[in-house]
Amino acid sequence: MDEETLAICNQPDCTFSQTGICVLNNEPVSCPDRISSLEDVSSAEENNSGDIYLEAPVDFERFSSSFSLAVQDAQNLMRNRYCKVVAILGVPGTGKTACLASLYLLLAHGRLNGFQFLDSKSIRAFEEITGGTRRWNSANLPEQLTVHTEMQDERIAGYLHLRLKHRSDGKKMDLLLTDLPGEWTLTLMDRNRTDRLDFLKSAERIWITINAEHIMDGSKRRYTIHRADLLLGRIKEFLEYDVPGICIVLTHCDKAEPVSKYFSELIRTHNDLDIKIIEIASFSQNPDIPAGFGLEETVKDLLHMRRKTTFDFAASLVRDDSVRNILKFQNF
């Protein structure tokens, strides 16, 4: 660009940029009406060549538009950061999805004591499962707060993601929580169907939801505990006794008295497992028990590795040349 075109004059009628002649017949370099000298403009242009004059806009991370994460999505996330996989099992109606919905709502309102919500790669999935709570008020509880879980692919698990920060030490934690139809647990117990349960092999914790109302009911108690005993046996058989910590989550505790005492025999029967019992109330109309009761304890339990194995480590060192062990490795 010619330096003459860069001169700027205080005279509104100046035609120097068009004619190259000052209307007052002044020298362009020494004209008292000039705003800046031509030499300064040229020097600035040379010195600043290639510089960035505007700062890049701040790019805030946006929530994902996806629903529950497929296996491939979960694997990609786990390649970038350490995630705790929590497998949630339970027959229909025991409150698996309600537990997830209540956990999300507590985090969204900053009411899960000790934890702060940071991110979710499945925000729309959480919004979908909490849709029923939009109609809930203290005077009228909807017949069903959460929708029944249905899988797009009935052979593949879906995952919900939460990234949290523990307030006391600032430690960050990524959770991948399964949201599965209760029918999967039924087929595991009744037919020992395990072809779609490979995710259990990567789980750091297994939650088993049981309706506390069924334990309070004397006519259902023995049968419900028997079914839990059967489920634990199926899990041990499938995982070849390499079982992570198990948390029996007793739901609907706003409608029942404490019932954990009824599980002492079950725990003795499966003393080779690390079992913890936590009573929760995902939603509540009991004025003495707040909605979300027990969920803080459930999440805090995930901060600790409770994995317990009982198989003989020496036996696992026996070499079998007929098997290429690298092919047995699973990321997920």
In short:
By secondary structure, the protein is an alpha/beta fold.
Describe it.
This protein has 332 residues and is α/β, with parallel strands linked by helices. It has two domains: 3-47, no CATH class; 71-309, P-loop containing nucleotide triphosphate hydrolases (Rossmann fold, 3-Layer(aba) Sandwich), CATH 3.40.50. 29% of the residues lie in helices and 14% in strands. The protein has eleven helices and seven strands. The protein has a seven-stranded mixed β-sheet, sandwiched between helices. Mean pLDDT is 79; it is low at 1-7, 37-42, 61-66, 136-149, 308-321 and 325-332. It holds the Pfam family DO-GTPase2.
Question: How are the SSEs ordered, and which strands pair?
Answer:
Elements: H1 16-19, H2 38-47, H3 71-80, E1 83-89, H4 96-108, E2 115-119, H5 123-129, E3 159-166, E4 172-178, H6 182-191, E5 205-211, H7 212-216, H8 218-238, E6 245-251, H9 264-269, E7 275-279, H10 295-300, H11 313-316
Parallel strand pairs: 1-4, 1-5, 5-6, 6-7
Antiparallel strand pairs: 2-3, 3-4
Which features characterize this protein?
332 residues, alpha/beta, Rossmann fold, seven-stranded mixed β-sheet, 7 strands, elongated, disordered N terminus
Give the amount of beta strand, in percent: 5-15%
Overall morphology: elongated
Text of the CATH class of the largest domain: Alpha Beta
In the CATH hierarchy, what is the superfamily of the largest domain?
P-loop containing nucleotide triphosphate hydrolases
Structural class: alpha/beta
As a whole number of angstroms, the C-alpha radius of gyration is: 32 Å
Helical residue percent band: 25-40%
Enumerate how many helices there are, as a single number: 11
Number of strands: 7
Largest sheet: 7 strands, mixed
Low-confidence stretches: 1-7, 37-42, 61-66, 136-149, 308-321, 325-332
Distance between the termini: 62 Å
User: Which topology of the largest domain does CATH recognise?
Assistant: Rossmann fold
Side-by-side strand order of the widest sheet? 2-3-4-1-5-6-7
Pfam families: DO-GTPase2 (PF19993)
Organism: Flavobacterium ginsengiterrae
Protein name: Double-GTPase 2 domain-containing protein
